[in-house]
Target: Adenosylhomocysteinase
Amino acid sequence: MALLVEKTTSGREYKVKDMSQADFGRLEIELAEVEMPGLMSCRTEFGPSQPFKGARITGSLHMTIQTAVLIETLTALGAEVRWCSCNIFSTQDHAAAAIARDSAAVFAWKGETLQEYWWCTERALDWGPGGGPDLIVDDGGDATLLIHEGVKAEEEFEKSGKVPDPSSTDNSEFQIVLTIIRDGLKTDPKKYTRMKERLVGVSEETTTGVKRLYQMQANGTLLFPAINVNDSVTKSKFDNLYGCRHSLPDGLMRATDVMIAGKVAVVCGYGDVGKGCAAALKQAGARVIVTEIDPICALQALMEGLQVLTLEDVVSEADIFVTTTGNKDIIMVDHMKKMKNNAIVCNIGHFDNEIDMQGLETYPGVKRITIKPQTDRWVFPETKTGIIVLAEGRLMNLGCATGHPSFVMSCSFTNQVIAQLELWKEKSTGKYKKEVYVLPKHLDEKVAALHLGKLGAKLTKLSKDQADYISVPIEGPYKPPHYRY
Amino acid sequence: MALLVEKTTSGREYKVKDMSQADFGRLEIELAEVEMPGLMSCRTEFGPSQPFKGARITGSLHMTIQTAVLIETLTALGAEVRWCSCNIFSTQDHAAAAIARDSAAVFAWKGETLQEYWWCTERALDWGPGGGPDLIVDDGGDATLLIHEGVKAEEEFEKSGKVPDPSSTDNSEFQIVLTIIRDGLKTDPKKYTRMKERLVGVSEETTTGVKRLYQMQANGTLLFPAINVNDSVTKSKFDNLYGCRHSLPDGLMRATDVMIAGKVAVVCGYGDVGKGCAAALKQAGARVIVTEIDPICALQALMEGLQVLTLEDVVSEADIFVTTTGNKDIIMVDHMKKMKNNAIVCNIGHFDNEIDMQGLETYPGVKRITIKPQTDRWVFPETKTGIIVLAEGRLMNLGCATGHPSFVMSCSFTNQVIAQLELWKEKSTGKYKKEVYVLPKHLDEKVAALHLGKLGAKLTKLSKDQADYISVPIEGPYKPPHYRY
Amino acid sequence: MALLVEKTTSGREYKVKDMSQADFGRLEIELAEVEMPGLMSCRTEFGPSQPFKGARITGSLHMTIQTAVLIETLTALGAEVRWCSCNIFSTQDHAAAAIARDSAAVFAWKGETLQEYWWCTERALDWGPGGGPDLIVDDGGDATLLIHEGVKAEEEFEKSGKVPDPSSTDNSEFQIVLTIIRDGLKTDPKKYTRMKERLVGVSEETTTGVKRLYQMQANGTLLFPAINVNDSVTKSKFDNLYGCRHSLPDGLMRATDVMIAGKVAVVCGYGDVGKGCAAALKQAGARVIVTEIDPICALQALMEGLQVLTLEDVVSEADIFVTTTGNKDIIMVDHMKKMKNNAIVCNIGHFDNEIDMQGLETYPGVKRITIKPQTDRWVFPETKTGIIVLAEGRLMNLGCATGHPSFVMSCSFTNQVIAQLELWKEKSTGKYKKEVYVLPKHLDEKVAALHLGKLGAKLTKLSKDQADYISVPIEGPYKPPHYRY
Amino acid sequence: MALLVEKTTSGREYKVKDMSQADFGRLEIELAEVEMPGLMSCRTEFGPSQPFKGARITGSLHMTIQTAVLIETLTALGAEVRWCSCNIFSTQDHAAAAIARDSAAVFAWKGETLQEYWWCTERALDWGPGGGPDLIVDDGGDATLLIHEGVKAEEEFEKSGKVPDPSSTDNSEFQIVLTIIRDGLKTDPKKYTRMKERLVGVSEETTTGVKRLYQMQANGTLLFPAINVNDSVTKSKFDNLYGCRHSLPDGLMRATDVMIAGKVAVVCGYGDVGKGCAAALKQAGARVIVTEIDPICALQALMEGLQVLTLEDVVSEADIFVTTTGNKDIIMVDHMKKMKNNAIVCNIGHFDNEIDMQGLETYPGVKRITIKPQTDRWVFPETKTGIIVLAEGRLMNLGCATGHPSFVMSCSFTNQVIAQLELWKEKSTGKYKKEVYVLPKHLDEKVAALHLGKLGAKLTKLSKDQADYISVPIEGPYKPPHYRY
Model:
């Protein structure tokens, strides 16, 4: 795909796979709106006052139907928006087309190369000569990373005239990042610095991105305020848990059509994502084995009747392997060689380095047979048996299916909208320093409350007397900050 | 699609959607083989002796990847095969292409019209001047129906010269059947009679088809022996139950991406199919309400914590409706009008008349919006709200997803192979009259046994003393005929 | 306990533990009545016409609170009743006292010796000089066995003058039976013969008793008609399955207070009882392993995510062992020696010979430590480690808890009442030969229907058109005889 | 029971129900030790160094078998111990007897009056003239409360000569507390002041007690350091959740023998306790309805397929009501009047004021029928129908069954031992102020780790590289403080 920016008749930039899918995307967006009461309530509550009037928002977040509803909520509140995906396989092309045609500048398609991926990220951040965005919606932290690396390079360049050297790293993706920055320095050596200066803040979606932010905060290198949306209860205990419970089997089924019942499944990691995955597999009739480093999570798995072993113990007898750890080097090529024929290996834990894709790709004599896009059988020369790797080791629920369903994403994205509103409202008050914040509990509870009516639920009201007895306000928040839900 | 038969270079007839998908089909067939140990064992055990040498088998059964493995098991045992699908939406075009190219005459594609459907059925039954098939593999009984109706018409024509009158029936599909037979009479007034004479027997796959056969047996109109494969334990208690538990959520997810958790789901009917559906929905986090006519099945639902109500009680508060009854007129257009906006209505119970599609299609002012193939939103003029109907009321797991997974179909189809072998072996012995038979229990147990190794199971062996104590042979069968599992 | 029959002030015979518990028994009987709608409906429907007027009914069935409601349903319909328990540990003494005081002749207490057990059985069958009962309600077949053995001995005695020789058998319990019969011959050599002649029939409750009856039918030795209540769907698919799902954890908890979550549990046998047990253990958080001889049941276990292995594979790593097979010699002393310290061993499958109690008791140097009644720790001399055996290997749910709960027993016992009514109504018509019968399906459905209202369920009604379409009567029965539910 | 302190032959004080049950208690304690690996590991690790040498520990915590193992762990580490129960129904008399005979001064029996209860608490705190305990193990905070109220009264008395006036409160239990303090003032006006001065700190077990502590911290009235054991993950996410999942059905079954399957159950509150209860009831086949004030917890319930309504919505159709809120006035007598006949009402949420017992007891014409201890039927005069109240509204799992099982209590109590060790070790360092602390995460993880071996689990080890990648030490702790598990 030639990397040329296109323009709509109204002059808005975009680069998507197929603009003719916009109608289809629109139909699915309309379905999703019915399933996303939190976002629709934001439109009702805040739309009239146009709080984002004048705000430029850049998003780097899976360009799906659900994200489309998020984007159009931001625009309904007055924002201008530019968007890219945060994963090379996660874009739904009809969603991208509908948004590009109707609402925002989109640079995303399913099956980007890494080169294309970072080009899209750069496009989303580039608001033209006037500088960058006011706000960032980030997922995994790639937009944030690019700015931080850009600023670092510009400062070094100013100081010493040195430009980044892509060959200084083994990491092939990071080489691309450095190349982009290096090439940018030639034409505009202050681009990222201007961005940083304009930026009011970022709201970050995932565990992985949040971890990066806390590290930057600890190192003192964070360049702007950040709101940790991931650790809103209505995000991490819903999207991570119930979203994966839904989308893991969905991805398995669409990619392989394999019967889950009767199979032995290994879930690496028993955090919120692992809990959702293990629950889904168990309910579908698999026998689930968990691997864990953390004894508390391990004991939780045991209490649910799951076996806790090491990967080495079970690598040759299991049928399905799922990584959910957020760590790297979980399933190595040496593990894969020992697996049963047609064992399924997939990752739903964020980066593709949970699975040793590089080890697999470079294994001498290994043969890759693409069954269909995002479903590959890799055959080892010694045994002639193969394993099935989904989405090239990247997020299988987004690569092989359509990601989390609308309802649970409405919880997550309502947190995003609230976080963005908060950052924008306080842009001049100094309330937020260059640190990482979580949303206050009453907003978390509000997000939940917005989603109850759709499911027919009715809340009980505290009496004054009862509220006093347990020392909470009648209207909440109802729990201390350390409460774990 | 022009209804012209094509031929492979080897001269075998076919009509499929796209022969270029044959390679993709072959890859998925190879994956499925690993998941279908029963069928592969049949190839190992019976292949060398070529028991089907000289046998012509016609199949009318969803032309999926799993069926492809069945077909190639039949050909591996020496049979010649012609095949059509038994549902206009259930064909997987890559499976059809691979089989058409490599193994058997196939007449099937996804999205046939009813005209095309019956044309395909006729093609699959037509073995040329030498008459029809020796054996039929039937699913739902359409191939059997066509022969029975054909013979009836030919007898009447011989007697009175009268030909069938399509306008004698309201049922638009049956009009097509009668038209085909009527037109055939002109060129060959003995075609179905010759078929009947050659036919050794049929093995029938489903509850619905079996019911038809028992009715014909009761009426004395059954023209050839039939084996009821559906009521093998390893079929109805596996495919119907565990297959639907797998494929119902699969279909829902692929068609609508809707979050199942938190929703109110109504399952009409709590037989094996309904039990599988209800289990799947409950496990995914829905609140499930069952409708039933049979107090025993209703009490079973209650014991699983499901509510049992009538459709009228819940029609306006539920989010998902699934019919599994095998009966007609379950969800009428008057029900649909009262449903919530974007309520999902689907059928997994065999025929599309479980849902009042005709009432819906002819409702004054109703508007159909096709979101994507097999996913339609129907908007009522009064309320401007819509419901989402899957697969036009036909089997949603085959129309919207890929049907049951390979492993459980291996159980069902191994029963089919065994039934076909039995009919063919006894073709001249008179063992089978023009009646309906079930397979003996030791074969049922054998089918199960063939599927244990793949799942790592180890059976316990009875001692002689124990076997005597409970009065069974050491090698089984272990249960009395009335045992319910 | 001295084996002397006592009499109430009204002159009715009894032998129970403690008559002062009658009030407590009455209170619990009243609670149970609310939970047993089937039995209470029988009282309402049939009470006024007193169909059992003049009938003598002997019951040999666990003398629990639920059985008390059964007995008082029989008396409410006009019967005279004598009762004993069918298990030495299953009597609830307060239930026995209340019935003895208020309604029927009872011979039963918790913790009978085998001598006492058979004395009670004899008392329950002995209606005085006028002969025996008209009808028997049997559970496990001991009352039926005593009559058959008695008649056999009397015939032999008449022919040859020979009396039974208790030393002719190794089975210590059967020695007691033969002794009773031998001693009876001296005073009345026609007692069992007269019983047989008077007897209209028996209705049998359990799998084990039914198996005995079918063997006698096959051998031609059955002396009177029998109705197989066990194989009513509303019995075996409810009491066996849902009853055990409830009462297995109940027994485990009351006997040992052990935490089930996290444990490895082995369920020997995956019939209805095993299915209920495995479901309960899995739901409570155990990891469940099943042992099976039958490949079909094994495959069912696998589809539910349970591992299927042999006892030998897992004997040294499991924490809880449950036998449900209905066979003998399942867990032998050699297995028990290999178990972990404080492994729990129990039986819910009918006779105590599922567990090798004799091998355990006679193991050299083994030490029995009674924690509390029905909970023993057996310590092996070699390892000084012990296992915990519940209820001395007899039914643990009745020995350690209170058996199945009222609601599910209402299903079973309503079948008993209907079976008894049917036998009595047809006593002179010759409808029932000396064979084993099951109740017709419409009565099975009726039993279920009587239990729906209590749970708030509403059935759907077929239209005439729908009923015709599926060829069933509007009012049922709705399923063919071979239907498996 | 006359309130006289007795003495063992060794001179240790006690007051228990029946010393002859000590042997039975010892047997069950020995069984429990095998199930409590955390406590036994503490004995192995710390026993040799006798860290509690010279420490006096007073405990106010359900005097069960599990607590006996805790007490003997404290004494094995060198402590002297005095103990009372924290609930009038929760003592297991055989456990109390064994401990009183063998290990510690115990003042507890099942079925205390409130007068007796507070007498026991006072006895447990009274170490003779030398003052009070060094450390307190508290559950619900009653021992802590008594000291705080005592000190307050002594200060007022010293200041103004005024003594507490029991008639100043409506709360009948608090009247008893004030009476005890008032009476004590006469003989020793510095008793509680001396206690306070000696006290090193308290470790508190439950949500309710912790809430009281935080309130005192907020008010500045907390008199000594406190460790919040409840909010250790290995306590609140295990004992509250998995403990209740086990012991709620246990209590229901022992108290009522009612079948849970098919019933409608209302769980008031969906915190950890409510989650455990709802899971248990759902798994047992009930249809569960949740009431909640907190929208986040409500949304969690919905995601598990539970209905969320208000008590008013369902009061007349449910069969079982369970309060788990930690609040008061949840089920009022006006609710109870509207319930179905024999609806079961019980509390597992801490205090008996969750249920309006006072309203019930004083309802005009209401009749109480005690079925058996802790199971009462209350009949309303208007309807003559009754409801069944368990444990007089107090903790039903301890009142009607034996509380949580040993394994999960081992987690909770290992936290207690660690907390006590920490307080004692730091008694002179000033590390702990008069505030509330939670244990550091590495100790929480250690508690979990001590429980893995018993369940056969094997942990995965991080490589150095992986640990660096996610920025945690190889040996943990692995999660940030805000992690919710």
User: Anything to note?
Assistant: DSSP finds 19 helices and 17 strands in chain C. The first strand of chain C starts at residue 6 and ends at 7.
